[in-house]
Amino acid sequence: LSILVILVSMFQSCSEKVETDLTKTAFIPKPTTVTATGDGYKLTNASLIYVQEGAEGLLGTAEILAERIEQLTGSSVETKTTSSPPSKGVYISLADKEQLNDQGYELKISKNLVSIKGADAAGCFFAAQTLLQTLPVEADNTQTLYIPTGTITDSPEYTYRGAMLDVARHFFNVEEVKQYIDFLAMYKMNVLHLHLTDDQGWRIEIKSWPKLTEIGGQTEVGGGKGGFYTQEQYKELVEYAADRQIMIVPEIDMPGHTNAALASYAELNCDGKARELYTGTEVGFSTFCTDKEVTYQFIDDVIRELAALTPGPYIHIGGDESHVTAHDDYVYFVNKVQDIVAKHGKKIIGWDEIANAKLIDDVTVQFWADVENTTMGVEKGAQVLMSPAARAYLDMQYDSTTHLGLHWAGYIEVDHGYNWDPATLVEGISKDNILGIEAPLWSETVTNIDEVEFMVFPRLPGYAEIGWTAPSERNWDEYKTRLAKHGKRFEALGIDYYKSALVPWE
Ligand code: TNX
């Protein structure tokens, strides 16, 4: 009998995957500190996830965590509030004020208890994402899963860590945008910038100007049928994102990139004639009429309705590539639009060209191409959002063989996308000037979520790490070994990624 017991226990220890060194986990973004204590927390003990009483706002995080653990273990996980810290299970609570940096957390995994302490709700959610990265990507229900014990303390380098999705050139529906939000959430990104309007399409319902979507929403690049979000659908996206600690920054691009609006309403054109819908990929040929009063009535209505749908502080006014707007008209226009946005209680973000205008307080200039514009913006008191096209554009091809994407700003292999520091990239722009980082995905060549995945993965985790982890803690040779371990994660999630030869995929 004792031989049988020994055999059975040997068999069990083989089938149980016991990794007890927390420092071996391939976290992306890399946390500030990780200390291992060499033991294992049995995941099936996570049958209860507790949330500190009075902090019910954390229940959403508990539920997202519970769902994932249920998928892995096959057994159900209950979430509930408690007035005192439990001795077993998972416990999510808020740290005392000033104990942790904003969005920061402490994650303590001991033999019986996993404790998440966040500086705020965002910190708790990010800690849960870290915890999820300690779990295997797939498991069959017979396995006993252990989480290596230890402590992680963590907080981000930049408060704003985002990605943009261009839903104007090609339309992406609510389900697809939710998938994009999930991608950001996995890597602790906290902003989704939606490029809602362009020459090829107007994608957000504006009740006071219904033809924007009735006409302007009806097509896309290549002549497909386009689409738009009703205000109800848009609210659903805002909420889905907020549950994952992501704010949506909506963009109405103007005065250029406006053909879809100019096709919908004749009066927005200087000659009073409606334009034809446009399904090509040229840029810089359209402009609102900057000296007509109706233009500003229109913008006031659009911004009013959009501000009402936007709990976050920002509205993006575009402002790029207005090649057919005279310089003085452009400056006059951007000045007026800033006042309209401010009147509706929102702060302004615009592409770096807007630095040519006067710039009111609290404006953020999004650096994409022009250093001179950007430094002029800083001199005028603006903050900078770093989206250098040659480093951070998700629509740039990886190399000359990439079947999607563009290369006007160069090729961006995975190492090139990762290997830069926002605070030292541009002379005259330092960390104090920088709000954060954003990786834009323009969609002239990208038509569906599989193609989105191919352009976004595996570069997105790198941009997330640039935004989160101090530059002194980052280097490509070490990063690529962690990224390599995420390939299986992508596969398990059905993500179609670019298998860069520079990454030693496992
Ligand atoms: C430039 S980046 C644009 C977009 C294009 C993109 C393609 C910027 C502010 N404007 O209109 O989609 O290049 O890479």
Automatic annotation (TrEMBL):
CDD domains: GH20_SpHex_like. Pfam families: Glyco_hydro_20, Glyco_hydro_20b. Residues 158-324, 327-470 form the Glycoside hydrolase family 20 catalytic domain. Residues 27-154 form the Beta-hexosaminidase bacterial type N-terminal domain. Transmembrane segments: none annotated. GO terms for cellular component: membrane. The keyword Hydrolase applies. PROSITE patterns: PROKAR_LIPOPROTEIN. Keywords: Glycosidase, Hydrolase, Signal. Residues 1-14 form the signal peptide. It comes from the Bacteria. Its EC number is 3.2.1.52. It catalyses: Hydrolysis of terminal non-reducing N-acetyl-D-hexosamine residues in N-acetyl-beta-D-hexosaminides. One of its GO terms (biological process) is carbohydrate metabolic process. The active site is at 321 (proton donor). One of its GO terms (molecular function) is beta-N-acetylhexosaminidase activity. Belongs to the glycosyl hydrolase 20 family. This is beta-N-acetylhexosaminidase. It comes from Draconibacterium halophilum.
